[in-house]
Amino acid sequence: MAIITLTTDFGTDDPYVAAMKGVILSINPDANIVDICHTIKPQSIAQAAYILSTTYHYFPKDAIHIVVVDPGVGTERQAVLLITPHGFFLGPDNGVLSDVAEEALPELETIALTNPRFWLSPVSNTFHGRDIFAPVAAHLSLGAPPREFGDLIPTIATLPIPGPNMGEDGVLIGRVIHIDRFGNLITDIKQADLPRGRLFVEACGHIIDDLSSSYEEGEELLAIIGSSERLEVSVQNGSAARFLRAKVGDEVKVGVNKSSLKGGLV
Questions:
Q1: Domains, the chain, ranges and CATH?
Q2: What pTM value is reported for the model?
Q3: Which of 30, 63, 193, 210 is deepest in the core (most CB within 10 A)?
Q4: Which of 99, 47, 96, 89 is nearest to 70 (CA)?
């Protein structure tokens, strides 16, 4: 059974996700469709890229992943298929597949979806998820050769891959790249980026003394390495985003010397 995953900003209150699933199942009734996330913030390409980057490694390497966060639908932007060692990826060429493409190099192949034989007809200018990506994924799951969907292209649009930088006094400066439904602030600082020794973490003017090993350990506000192996700022049994009035893009700093940070200790 072929696995086809869906990641969109469509939500669950409208018929859009169901329409995509209906198209897939009409072409391949045996497809196994997995919902990754449909609550991406509307038009948030960067959030979709992050969500996908933390999940696709856990699927079989022949899985087919559809990502539809597509503010440019109906324009000249291309629809693409990425062939990688970690599976097949379908989405608009707007940067949403940046992380996937970066990791797949140099084994990445990219195909522009130009063959209408595999699309629904007519194609809506506002719903390529249903009319292009879903039917292409279904045909791919039945064994259609990827080269039949279109032409090889050399590059795709990419977003800057987030990562921390080193500031003054050896302070590591990262940023919040995602806030999950619990209010945890997930940063672009990976465990491998952290200096050795006892650490101090500054977020929104508050300094946290060292890392915790669980959400129940430490004081009310704590720092922890989460399941994505990134530094998170959390609140025991609460929302760090609400407590700190934090948002995506806010700086988070890490240092081995408390005096190099500016906030107040908590």
A1: 3-152 (3.40.50.10790), 165-265 (2.40.30.90)
A2: 0.88
A3: 63
A4: 96
